[in-house]
Amino acid sequence: MSKSNWSNYTSFSKNSIIAALDIGSSKVSCLIGKLDNHNNLSIIGAGFQESKGLISGIITDMNALETSIRNCLTSAEKMAAVRVKKINIGFSSVNITIENLNIEIDLKGSIVSQGDLDRAYNFLSEKHSIRNKSILHVVPVQYSIDGNKGVKSPLGMFGDKLGVEISIISTDKNILKNFQNVVKQCDLEIDNIIYTPYAIGLSLLSEEEKELGVALVDIGATLSSLSIFYNGAIVFTKIIPLGGNMITNDISRIFSLSISDSERIKIINGQLIEEFENSLSIIEVDSLGDDNDSVEIIRKDLISVIKSRVKEIINTIKEQVIDSGYNHLIANRVVITGGSSQMDGLVDLTSKIIEKKARLAKSNIIKGIPENMRSSSFSAINSLLTYSTIDHNDISAEGSKKTSSSEGFYNYLVKFKNWILENF
User: Fold this and answer.
1) Which pLDDT score, from 0 to 100, does residue 1 have?
2) Strand 358-360 versus strand 334-337 pairing type
3) pTM higher than 0.70 for the full model?
4) Given CA atoms 94, 95, 96, 97 in this order, what sign does their dihedral have?
5) Is the distance from CB of 380 to CB of 89 less than 8 angstroms?
6) Helices in 256-296 by DSSP H: which ranges?
């Protein structure tokens, strides 16, 4: 859009307007929200477009992806009559890593001071290796005094030993730079880069689930993610290069259909439950090619194709849950979201394979959100927008607003993160 076309738009840089961008392999989504005086959020602009130039979280065509982002952003800005300058962007890639660090320092019976915390984080800065990595989040998990875990803020407490545990989420530096560049080419300033599954977990999981231990499964188009929360913090995450598009491709290949018809059949008829009364019913669809012939698909055959791929995805997730070392902490808490999560029978199949009770995540409905963006397919963009408004415990580049009793501690963590970024 040329500069002259912005005469009817308002340019906002105040904190009352926030915007978020989710760049996925199947679609690019944008939401623009406005905060009132009571910090209540409402949507004033929304848009989504087909994503081109991105496969499994890796950019394959910068120009095509830039066009997708620009078209999506323009739709949201037109609806809001607002020109976005700063934006939060979500990021997810198979190159995401999480490292849990633990240390213990001597207090010698004294009160925990800022100096003790400084010593702890100086040690962690030497212990954590992040060459060719960019840090997305530094999340305090818990502290302990004399072996007593579960301490939320140790400042002012007496003890002999202070234990500190944090999680650091990082990714490949060059991959992240490519994302940053394509967003900046759209005349946007990046406010925060947020690990998308982390934002989804903070938004959709209950406080009790995050405290007691829960596995969050997000099944996307080309990537699925597993994130485990415990003691109120994210402690494990893994991106799996499997997703709903593989189901679409299976349907296309086996029944000789176009990708668009296969996707439509998956959305309309996709299920994992073999109902005896309609298992032999016929689904008729145009065949691939120009001969105008139709293909008749028996429903039970379609279910068999879909179920085979879904089992592979869930079994891979189960393997990651076991390998994480947190399987015993999750108990019966698995929460599923994402575009492929609405398939009939998915919850039961997940419970059976993972051997834990599962449920679908409830969509976070923001005031003013369009009807066509209320499904779990848009849980990521909704969560990215609300990220700035909720109480999270991660350390951003600008720091977090904390209570006065812990403000110095969190300011130090901000300096610690910046020191890592400047020296590696």
Assistant:
1) 40
2) parallel
3) yes
4) positive
5) no
6) 259-269
pLDDT at 84 over 60: yes
Length of the chain: 424
Q: Is 368 helix (H, G, I), strand (E, B) or coil?
A: coil
Residue in 284, 238, 237, 292 with CA at minimum distance from that of residue 265 = 284
Give the CA angle between residues 157, 163, 164 to the nearest 5°: 105
Distance CA 424, CA 132 (A): 8
Lowest mean pLDDT among 149-158, 210-219, 365-374: 149-158
Return d(Cα 365, Cα 375) in angstroms, integer.
9
DSSP code for 3: G
Phi, psi of 100 (to 5 degrees): -100, 125
Amino acid at 266: K
> The tokens 């439509």 sit on which residue?
264
Separation CA 278–CA 72 (nearest Å): 40
**Does position 41 have pLDDT exceeding 70, yes or no?**
yes
- Express each pLDDT in 126-155 by its tens digit: 555 556 788 888 888 888 888 888 787 788
Residue 353: name the closest of 302, 303, 313 by CA. Answer: 313
Helix, strand or coil, per DSSP, at residue 189? strand
* Alpha helices by DSSP H, 237-345: 244-255, 259-269, 299-324, 327-330
For the chain, the first-to-last Cα distance in angstroms comes to: 39
The answer to whether 27 and 49 have CB atoms below 8 angstroms apart is yes
CB atoms within 10 A of CB 32: 25
Higher pLDDT, 392 or 76: 76
